[in-house]
Amino acid sequence: MIMFKKILIANRGEIACRIIRSARDMGIATVAVYSDADACALHVRMADEAVHIGSSPAAESYLVMDKILAAIYDTGADAVHPGYGFLSENADFARALETAGVTFIGPPPDAIAAMGDKIESKKLASAAGVSTVPGHMDTISDVAEAEKVAGDIGYPVMIKASAGGGGKGMRIAYCEEEVGDGFRSAQNEARSSFGDDRIFIERYIEEPRHIEIQILADAHGNVIHLGERECSIQRRHQKVVEEAPSPFLDDETRAAMGAQSCALAAAVGYCTAGTVEFIVDKGRNFYFLEMNTRLQVEHPVTEMVTGLDLVEHMIRIANGEKLSLSQEDVTFTGWAIETRVYAEDPSRNFLPAIGRLVRYRAPAEDGVNVRIDTGVDEGSEISMFYDPMIAKLVTYGTDRAEATLRMQDALDGYYIRGTGQNTAFLASILSHSRFAEGRLTTNFIAEEYPDGYAPAAPEGTLRDRFAAVAAYVHGRHVARARQTGISGVPSPPTGELASQVQIGAYTDTVTLSYRTDGADVVIDDRTISFSTLWNLGDPVFVATFDDGVATFQVDRAGLSFRLTHRGVVANVKMFSARGAALNARMLEKTPPDMSRFVLSPMPGLLVSVAVEVGTQVRAGEEVAVVEAMKMENVLRASADGIVKSLQAGPGDSLAVDQPIIEFE
Predict the structure, then answer these.
(1) Which of 14, 242, 290, 303 does the annotation list as catalytic?
(2) Topology of the domain comprising 597-663
(3) Quick check: is 290 catalytic?
(4) Does domain 460-583 have CATH number 3.30.700.30?
(5) What is 6-105's CATH topology?
(6) Could you report the average pLDDT of every consecutive run of 10 residues in the chain (664 residues)?
(7) Which of 52, 317, 592, 634 is 20 to 30 A from residue 557's alpha carbon, by CA?
């Protein structure tokens, strides 16, 4: 059978790069498309050809079918892979390709339409014998109807966009008072992201797990499943950590979920890779959530435990080939975990962060135990126009404990600067006792980080290790400063170096003795020895202690060092005895009082302002809405007050902490 000669990838970022790699391995040429913001993007540089398709907003480039079709015509591509997001689940796009005689590497248009509508898909799933969540399966027209339907179903309820996905257009309401805001926000997000503002409501399952089944189906009637992925650790309904297999399912539940998933795929004439998502309660009862008629973001964990290339299978299925394996041929080996590395600020309620990656150093990847799917490199720009994902970091182990340990080590070594990023937060999750025990629900982050993420301070032995590493690095910098001439790379210092180390409220005396391969450090009466090959200027410090290897990120600012390890962060200050005494007398600078202002919590677009000068506002009332990364964020007054001035207006682009409203 003749294979495709050229595939156009109607997407961007890491998924475009991922598809290019598989196509290249198959000997197929690729075409990238790009917007103004992506002119220098990695996927553009990787592809054999690239076509500019418009300005930066997705609605003016990646979502414009005519521009994609024109790029296909101009380059002579004979197939299109849509990746995920954008046009990947657009039945009209699939039909347009069919009309143009170009193969869509995805499901038939009718299957996309059937499963892309969450209301209709639940009806079809129920008819196919798939367990579904109780709810109102018709479109809700307004807030009054939403309040009535929610009351009939019983709280809590999930307000969802029929065309939604990726956590957009979803709100939970625990009482009638929360339905109105939830309905309006879900509708606005759905309209902005999908051009479809239809809303429905269903029962919200408490203590839920989010577990999904990967399927493959060909055009010859063959359907198989490739096991499950546990995707319960989520934030704002977007997945943060995924793994395969699930630590919760037993063989009986897994088989039942797989069988129902295959039955649903067969019922709608599905063809290609797809995912059937379920909500699973604490009794292992499972309920159909939705079917994603595309490749999933978290597909690498399935590839790691099955040894299959899902993109290659999608291409071969689209080319008319039969599946090369049956259900009995599918085997699962080991454990895989994926973390999503985002440009965001965990300390500010995980708000998206934009900016340039001025430093980008990924952990070593071998394709077996550590895999990184990314669409960026050093110097890349994280734009306000798209999802703020930097990379997907995937690790493999013979069991869950080994995969977790490898993930912790990889996160410790993932050095990113220039924009906010969440690697320390991810490391904190992986180090949590509840994660180790596998006690996961979709409420994990809300329950374990109720006030947001604040890095833990080092305690006990770990604090000593932070002090020892900082003392070693400090001593190397001191030795270099004392050298004269330009004799080349400075030699490691010798002899002893005594200093004072301050970590939070703790101040200790440190005496460090250098060895050719490391150092012996005495902190008060405690001795820590380690070996290291660290060189000046390296932001990642790898040391071998008596119980194994540990990796620290080290950022220097004068005599202070910011160290990060396993999600624990500390500012370590190094002083001479005299310097420590003088530092104790330093006055702390008091930040300006901004309490009378409503500040933008993130870079974004000011969508609306609900007040005007002179308005009397009560605490908790909505005052403005800011949109960033396609997500609406409602800003509320923190106290009663009268509006003195408006510092910005609807349509303005905002910087983080930019004043919007001033109160008297």
Answers:
(1) 290
(2) OB fold (Dihydrolipoamide Acetyltransferase, E2P) (2.40.50)
(3) yes
(4) yes
(5) Rossmann fold (3.40.50)
(6) 94 98 98 97 98 96 97 98 96 97 97 88 92 85 92 90 77 93 90 84 89 98 98 92 98 97 96 97 92 97 98 98 97 98 88 89 93 97 91 98 98 96 96 97 94 90 96 89 60 71 89 93 93 94 96 90 96 84 76 88 88 92 84 86 94 90 93
(7) 592
